Amino acid sequence: MKQLIVLGVVGFLAQLVDGSLGMAYGVTSSTLLLAAGVAPAAASAAVHFSEIGTSLVSGISHHKLGNVDWRTVTILAGPGFVGAFVGATFLVSLPADTAKPWVAGILLALGLYVVYRFLVLRGQRPQFRGRPSARFLAPMGLFGGALDAIGGGGWGPVGTTTLLSSGRLEPRKVVGSIDTSEFVVAVGGSLGFLVGLGAAGIDWGYALALLAGGVVAAPIAAYLVKILPARVLGVAAGGLIVLTNSTTIGGSLGLVGTQVGALAAVVGALWIAGIVWAVRDEVTARRAAAAAEGATADLQPA
């Protein structure tokens, strides 16, 4: 029971991040399940079944707040479904011992990118030349869905950053559209795991615990997307992902005892430093924005 309560809290925090930033629910949840010793396919299956409920509630919440571009959702949903189904059946075919370090490597890379995006790029993306069309978005949906199923997360990092780079949607609609289309991706991945693992191979307790926490957080996150300092939460979430998966990979490479502890200490120190940097950066940016607003007001005629 204690473990299920912890997973409920994990689901709440993961959905709070995902619903606010458009990424990290699957990556965060899968990372912690792998760290608890759950096999990669079983972990990703539990996450995807829980995402069916969390993404549905999140999508409804974003729609009510006007955060969804339905044209984008309809283009992404089909390829995302196919990619997730194929990715899930591929992951199931791999032996658990073989899959775990590779999945941890994918999650580590995604975590590093999340940190990079919100710490170095400060949440900004370069402009993509040309207007993204269905021909551009469909392959992105296929790749994002496959990566999401294989790594237990990836739809948000791929989809959110691609849409932000296109420059054709405001950030809140990017987040809302990715979270809404994730419902179809979660269904595709879940069906793939159900076919490959069977109902007996899925830990429904884990899925329901993550679902319970995520459903509570989804409406809150949809509201916070308008007011949350994204860079701080993004760095915090990405750092947790990097910390957990780096120790998993270290263990797979033969590190033991104090060596794993030393690796965790170094990564943890860098994580804390990154959060402090993000907080200071956020404070500086807000002060600069307030000063610019004040200067503009002074220039206005009385």
Structural notes for this entry:
This protein is about 80% helix and about 0% strand. It is mostly helical and about 300 residues long.
Structural descriptors:
about 300 residues, globular
**Beta-strand fraction estimate:** under 5%
Average pLDDT rating: 77
| Span of the ends, CA to CA | 65 Å
The ordered H/E elements are HHHHHHHHHHH
Topology:
Elements: H1 2-21, H2 25-35, H3 40-64, H4 70-92, H5 96-120, H6 134-151, H7 155-166, H8 171-197, H9 204-224, H10 230-252, H11 258-299
Helix pairs in contact: 1-2, 1-9, 1-10, 2-3, 2-5, 2-10, 3-8, 3-9, 4-6, 4-8, 5-10, 6-7, 7-8, 10-11
Short description:
This protein has 302 residues and is an all-alpha fold.
